[in-house]
Amino acid sequence: MSARFLAVALLPIVLTACAGSETSGGMSFTGDRGVADQPYPNNYRAEILAFMHTYLNSPVGVQEAMMAEPVQRTVGGRIRYVSCLRYSAKDADGSYHGAGERAVVYVDGRLDRIIEKAAEVCAGVTYAPFPELEKMVR
What we know:
- The protein is an alpha+beta fold.
- The chain has 3 helices and 6 strands, in the order H-H-E-E-E-E-E-E-H.
- Strands 1, 2, 3, 4, 5 and 6 form a 6-stranded antiparallel β-sheet that branches.
């Protein structure tokens, strides 16, 4: 068996390992060292806006934008700062659906990932208007 064949055969396994587990709710963008003593994400508003600008299909016209300040929660068995978002964004056809709830997870004070189904992680948080998200432009 050639080394090239072996590399191609193992590629799906390696990529699956990089994608993260289903319990984490998404792919991690930072190297998570597993440290429980996490710093507060001081620049969370700017980081969320920068990320959402690329995350959304159309960052223009976001409605009902609300955000909760970062609080510590257990995510994937580890204590992390989490900021919850609720907003309604345009679909590809220009229509809106009800506001969806997502959790932004921070590792070492930086945005790490977004959890799409965040009802459990965001339970009990206090939302406040997030007008900057509604004012985004291309």
